[in-house]
Design goal:
Number of strands: 11
Strand order of the largest sheet: 2-3-11-5-10-4
Largest sheet: 6 strands, mixed
Number of helices: 19
Structural class: alpha+beta
Radius of gyration: 27 Å
Length: about 525
């Protein structure tokens, strides 16, 4: 039996007296043509081992050995260092699997009262879980978020009399066993099945089948997740980007689909939520159909602005910041794994912060937009599409905020400031409980409530407060002094995007505190 290469040069072969060992089957799935594939460690696609392994373990033991790489904040990290490979976990789904294992379907879907009643005992069935957990075995020297796996926690394949065995990091497993730092197994597919056995002592002897790769680079892990879950059309692609954020920046996926699939799909979804969520500043105020008579910024313009800001690649071009909702960092292999609902809630919160502060503003520009009549003329009729309660300083026809340039400018500076301070704001620690909401809008609502209690909410609110003091009048505003009108003409056309971002940052740089300090650093990088 040839087990000469376990992954990235790690043999892990020992003989003699050893801790707990279990038999494994070696599966050889490697074709000669695969050696021509462009393997690149710099892209987290190092050449994998030419085989993987099959075995089974008691589920609770397997759970203790397994982990999802979570984001760990580093207070001194400049921006990307704290954002790890986060996978979204739905506790409610795991709880249903726990019930399913006990007595199968449909008993697992019954209410607590019905399950407690003997009337439905005839619905009990075996709760088999024959589908394998797919995982990666970390090898010596592997590192996640700056932490290396401890030698004492390594799981290796050993040769015993010519047969491979999996050697575990203990002589006998105990319920209180825990790794020193990183768990030796990384779950690629099957996390909800594993989490179902968390603390489930009544299921102690229940075993799960396992497919184990050894030393598999993280981009290949994302690729495996896609081929297992998406290619057979088991779940939709948008959900996949939430479940496995590493997929957001896979170039092979973009090329196969013919366009940046995550960026385009996610930007469109976020635009629709901003338009359809009742408490959004842009509720029913986005031109979704591209109607000429509809003056609101079009859906396509919103999508373009989001893909140019929040949903662009995490690794920004030289001299620029990346996108907060973008794909993983090629240098760090990290990603801010917020779900679609979290991303939408963040955008809604930021826009609402600007809207509420503009409403309270008595600055000259805001007062002028609320009273747009030229000197000596009657006040023009209020635009028909506006409600009586709508603030003309925010929604009015002469407010830069509700133009393509204004939308892009606001999204740019909010993204750039939060991206710059991502680690210090501890954005990675926001993990709301999304299981109780029965529909997408309900999940956004739950995320909004959760966001309001996060430390970074104050920073986003301060951005909105500071930007409310910027002069948001367009060059077409009635009664605008000629010099100011000419100065505002620079915001027109495609060149206006860059100019507005520059002026917004310069304005924010005059503010005291974290917002001002961050804006100054961004200006220095421009």
């Amino acid at each position: 039996m040839d087990i000469s290469t376990l992954g990235r040069g790690e043999r892990g072969i020992v003989t003699g007296d050893a801790p707990r060992q279990i038999p494994v089957l070696t599966v050889n799935q490697w074709l000669p043509g695969w050696n021509k594939i462009d393997f690149d460690p710099e892209e987290h696609r190092a050449k994998p081992a030419e085989f993987f392994y099959l075995f089974s373990l008691p589920a609770r033991e397997l759970r203790s050995l397994s982990g999802i790489v979570r984001r760990v904040a580093k207070d001194a990290a400049p921006r990307t260092d704290d954002l790890g490979i986060q996978r979204q976990h739905d506790p409610e789904r795991s709880e249903e699997i726990t019930r399913f294992v006990e007595y199968g379907y449909p008993w697992s879907t019954l209410s607590d009262a019905k399950r407690a009643s003997a009337e439905f005992n005839d619905l009990r069935k075996p709760g088999w879980l024959p589908t394998a957990i797919v995982l990666n075995v970390l090898v010596k020297g592997d590192e996640r978020n700056g932490t290396k796996i401890a030698d004492a926690d390594l799981v290796t394949v050993v040769d015993v009399g010519g047969s491979p065995r999996l050697q575990l990091p203990y002589k006998a497993w105990a319920a209180n066993w825990a790794p020193t730092a990183l768990p030796p197994f990384e779950v690629i597919d099957g996390q909800h099945r594993l989490w179902a056995f968390e603390g489930a002592s009544q299921l102690e002897n229940f075993e799960l089948p396992v497919v184990a790769f050894v030393g598999l680079d993280i981009s290949w892990q994302a690729y495996l997740f896609w081929t297992i879950n998406i290619k057979p059309k088991r779940i939709n692609s948008s959900l996949a980007f939430d479940l496995y954020p590493l997929l957001r920046n896979e170039d092979w996926l973009d090329r196969a689909e013919g366009h940046p699939i995550y960026r385009q799909t996610r930007a469109q979804e976020l635009t629709e939520i901003l338009w359809s969520y009742p408490e959004s500043a842009w509720y029913d105020r986005i031109n979704m159909l591209g109607e000429r008579q509809n003056r609101w910024v079009s859906q396509s313009a919103w999508i373009n602005s989001l893909t140019a800001t929040f949903v662009r690649s995490w690794d920004g071009r030289s001299g620029s910041t990346g996108g907060l909702f973008g794909g993983r960092s090629k240098k760090q292999g990290e990603v801010l794994g917020w779900s679609r609902a979290q991303q939408a809630a963040f955008l809604i919160f930021a826009w609402n912060a600007l809207k509420s502060n503009v409403r309270e503003s008595l600055a000259e520009w805001a007062v002028a937009l609320r009273n747009p009549a030229k000197q000596g003329e009657e006040k023009p009729a209020r635009p028909e599409e506006l409600k009586a309660t709508d603030d003309l300083a925010f929604y009015g026809p002469f407010s830069l905020i509700c133009t393509d340039q204004g939308v892009r400018g606001f999204l740019q500076v909010v993204n750039d400031l939060c991206y710059q301070r991502a680690s210090l704001l501890k954005l990675n620690r926001w993990i709301p409980d999304e299981r109780s909401a029965p529909n997408p809008i309900g999940v956004v609502e739950a995320s909004l409530k959760s966001l309001a209690g996060e430390e970074f909410a104050a920073f986003v609110t301060d951005i909105g407060k500071a930007l409310a003091t910027f002069d948001w009048r367009t060059s077409a505003t009635p009664g605008l002094e000629e010099g100011l009108r000419r100065a505002k003409l620079v915001f027109r056309g495609s060149g206006g995007y860059k100019e507005l971002r520059t002026q917004l940052l310069e304005h924010l740089a005059t503010v005291q505190g974290d917002v001002g300090d961050t804006a100054k650093r961004l200006i220095g990088k421009s």
